[in-house]
Amino acid sequence: MHLSAVEDSEIQGNKGDKHLWGIVDMGSNGIRLSVTNLAPPTARILPTLVSYRLDVSLYSAQYDEKTGNRIPIPQDVIDKIIASLLRFKVICADLDVPKKNIRIIATEATRTAINSAEYRKAILEATGLEVEMLAKEEEGYVGALGVASGFSNVSGIVMDLGGGSTQITWMISKDGKVTVSPKGSVSFPYGAAALTKKLADLRKGKSEEEGDAAVAEFRKEMETNFTKAYDELDIPDEMIQRAKKEGGFPLYLSGGGFRGWGYLLLYMSQVEGRHYPISLINGFRASKEKFEDVETLKKVAREAKEIFRVSDRRRAQVPAVAFLVNVLTGSLPHGIKEAHFCQGGVREGVLFRQMEQATRDDDPLEVATSKYARKSSDTISSLILNAIPKSSSNSKRAVPESVSKHVVHAFANVLYVHSPMSKEIASTAALYCTSTGFMSSTHGVSHSDRALLALLLESRYDGELPPREVDFKKSLQAILTPEEVWWTRYLGEVGQLLATLYPSGSFDEDEPRIRTKAEWASGFGKDNDKEGLRLILSIKKVKKDPMMLRDTLEDLTSEIDKVGKKKNWIGGETGWGMAIDVKIKEVESLD
Predict the structure, then answer these.
(1) Three-class SS of residue 354?
(2) Hey, which residues does 341 pair with through a beta bridge?
(3) pLDDT band at 81 (very low <50, low <70, confident <90, very high)
(4) In 10 A of CB 231, how many CB atoms?
(5) How many other CB atoms are found less than 10 A from the CB of residue 181?
(6) pTM > 0.90
(7) Most CB atoms within 10 A, among 307, 347, 360, 384?
(8) CA 121 – CA 119 distance, rounded (Å)
(9) Separation CA 34–CA 278 (nearest Å)
């Protein structure tokens, strides 16, 4: 039997692990190459097998250094890219990526190149890989999906700042269901590299006064375009009303230009006595005031000797990004509430787009922790959730939305991870696990969720830390509100109680040892004047109980009780907290 060349190619293309995908994100400022495993059950967090970057600016390569005139992509640049793609094919083969699962996604710089067709043909002939070009509007949508991949929920304005262009749209993403503007996105030629060149060209050959006038005129043009885009995008009225109420829109920012800005802000939060605890850009959040402080960030970019994750090229583009931020601040109606920085871009958006809706629905925090779950983790999660009083419509008392069922379930999944460790190290290891430990590379988890889970686990192991780790704990707490911190202490102690009663994490769920229930309460304490929550722990009456449940519970509940003491509130006696009344009930049956 003889196969045709086409049939043989199809067979070769299908060989390998169908869940592995090799993605080349051919951007304007650099080329990112990676292999990702989309196998269930962890596809939602985009596990990466290998990832690296080719430092080639396709945008800069298309301008003559002497004249500044537009030129075709030079042959030496094409040769360098082809060589890198051939190497990537070898890496993909080593990792068992099917040839048909290797995709090259190109954006602005390739799309607008003078010799775009010739460039893409050269790649196809040398590598056998076809270059897929995203249209302007599609680039913004795919970038928005990349942002959605990086969070459990998103609601706000989404912008992607590449080297050659910037896209803007709005997005609401909840539980993997993504809604964006029906207009798609609006694209402008305001990329970080493009703006750097434009601002330099506006001043070339002019006096300072003439240059300032030209830049001012360009600023007006940009402001007009952004305001027009705002009107065209049909932002939902609900989002607008929230922006009016809360002082602006949340921004979700992706692309290398904005990531560079985010890394500058991250650097500022970790120098001169400041100790921001998480050095990951995805999920990093900056206040309106810090995000808009362009003069400080430009000065840092000029003067700092080394800046974590900011290359010389990115430094050179900081004034242009600052210019864009200034324009954005002045032209976005209702202003900016805060900025969320995202690792997700075209690569992540392409992969997220391929997922089935059921996979998108998965919560990243739960997915990341699921492989550590013990047999009875779901039941333990329910016991912890039942230790949280239900919010009522006629009461102002409620648990913060951030202390969600997803966070609690993730906590139950990893409740036993550090239990083999000695007391002197367990709390410390737990405290670091979401930022530099086993969860540090997880995609899709915000910094606040990382802080919540770390503090829950640290409290579950008695919260005893050596002196050098206390500052790190305080820096994690600073990401959260005092109210959120208090709930991590309370639920962490509940987790400790359950882990003590069920040391294996695997048990016969038809023969429970405890039931939990919580309610908002008042009129307890020595003077019957305290308000807070009542935790009711029900256990079965057993004569000569070998587990000594009641005695064990009385010892453990004393630690929960301490969380409710004013001296232990977050911020001291005038800080945030509430009294806790723990009741142990012996019952005939726990059914």
Answers:
(1) helix
(2) 253
(3) very high
(4) 9
(5) 21
(6) yes
(7) 347
(8) 5
(9) 24
